[in-house]
Automatic annotation (TrEMBL):
<dbReference type="InterPro" id="IPR018627">
    <property type="entry name" value="ELP6"/>
</dbReference>
<comment type="pathway">
    <text>tRNA modification; 5-methoxycarbonylmethyl-2-thiouridine-tRNA biosynthesis.</text>
</comment>
<comment type="similarity">
    <text>Belongs to the ELP6 family.</text>
</comment>
<dbReference type="InterPro" id="IPR027417">
    <property type="entry name" value="P-loop_NTPase"/>
</dbReference>
<protein>
    <recommendedName>
        <fullName>Elongator complex protein 6</fullName>
    </recommendedName>
</protein>
<dbReference type="Pfam" id="PF09807">
    <property type="entry name" value="ELP6"/>
</dbReference>
Length: 263
């Protein structure tokens, strides 16, 4: 086993990397979190893995939540320089905070604005495909903010965008990684795009607080449901399909461990 692999890597199927170096190719990964326990660190860990110097994969990152400087600062602590990755054309960072999903003069045509955003992503995928055969990952941080960014705040537009991006997994074999705050809609009926995300996801990673309450040396727990890992193993087994482990966030990384097994 590769000593650099952690429990999250193993739950995602990277233990099969000898036969499949990109087990998430063509798959949808949904990260769900809540106010009490942020799942952003999972996104950062996946960013680091995609941009690893040991791979030639590329990343298209849609940032609805925070500016480039935020991610650059965090990834530097993890040993990854995002500015260098942009220069090397391995990272395409789309700062949605500096853009509008729809023109001020065309607020009534918000659906076409979402389609326009997807066409830009699709065009970027094609450009990257023209120079590399490596895996391309599209990340969204976070999907719930797309509804706010859209002029008319219509969840149907988010559903449209989700379906647009899902076509990239089947047509271009891209990976799609989405962060969403599950508890935002806890006081109302869950919109269709939330249910659809869970349905489309090959992997669901849920960050939650400890059931026993707060602990100084444990910051929360992850539940990973990997619907496709049995296909990756080629053995027809469903081992590791569901994993549950705890984590501790450190200054320069994350420590993962099973309950009661932390050294």
């Amino acid at each position: 086993m590769d000593r650099s692999l952690n429990l999250l890597d193993l739950a995602l199927g990277f233990d099969e990397q000898l036969s499949d170096p990109s087990p998430l190719s063509g798959k949808v990964v949904l990260i769900e979190d809540c106010v009490e326990t942020s799942g952003s660190f999972v996104l950062h860990q996946l960013m680091k893995r995609v941009l690893s110097p040991h791979s030639s994969d590329s990343l298209i990152f849609l940032a609805f939540a925070r500016p480039f400087s935020h991610y650059d600062r965090i990834l530097r602590k993890l040993g990854c320089n995002l500015a260098t990755q942009k220069t090397n054309n391995r990272l395409v960072f789309v700062d949605m905070l500096m853009m509008k999903c729809s023109d001020g003069e065309e607020t009534k045509d918000d659906v076409s604005a979402v389609a326009k955003l997807f066409r830009e992503i699709q065009g970027t995928v094609r450009k990257l495909r023209s120079v590399t055969n490596s895996n391309i990952t599209v990340m969204v941080d976070d999907m719930s903010l797309l509804e706010i960014a859209a002029t008319n705040s219509n969840s149907d537009h988010v559903l449209d965008f989700l379906h647009y991006c899902h076509t990239l997994t089947s047509e271009s074999n891209c990976s799609l990684v989405i962060l969403n705050h599950e508890d935002i809609y806890s006081s109302m009926e869950r919109p269709a795009f939330l249910l659809q995300m869970v349905c489309l996801a090959d992997v669901v990673i849920k960050a939650e607080p400890l059931a026993s309450g707060l602990a100084n040396d444990v910051h929360g727990q992850l539940t990973v449901v990997n619907k496709g890992i049995s296909r990756n193993s080629g053995k027809g087994s469903s081992r590791n399909k569901l994993q549950n482990f705890q984590f501790r966030i450190k200054e320069n990384g994350i420590e993962y461990f099973y309950p009661g097994c932390r050294s």
